[in-house]
Specification:
Blueprint lengths: L11 E3 L2 E3 L1 H9 L8 H5 L3
Antiparallel strand pairs: 1-2
Length: 45
C-alpha cells in the first residue's frame, strides 16, 4: 500500500488514508484543533 501523500510505502492509516511514517508524524505536528497543550501530547511518548 502506498502513501497517499507521496510514493513511499504506507505504514499507517490516518483519517482513513494510508500514509508513510513521515507524513503521519507531520500531521501530528500540526493538530487541527488547538485544544490540549504540547505537554498533553508528549504524555504518549
Amino acid at each position: 500500500m502506498k502513501c497517499t501523500k507521496c510514493d513511499k510505502e504506507a505504514e499507517y492509516i490516518v483519517d482513513g488514508q494510508s500514509v508513510c511514517k513521515e507524513h503521519k508524524e507531520h500531521k501530528e505536528d500540526k493538530p487541527e484543533r488547538e485544544e490540549g497543550t504540547m505537554g498533553d501530547r508528549l504524555v504518549g511518548w
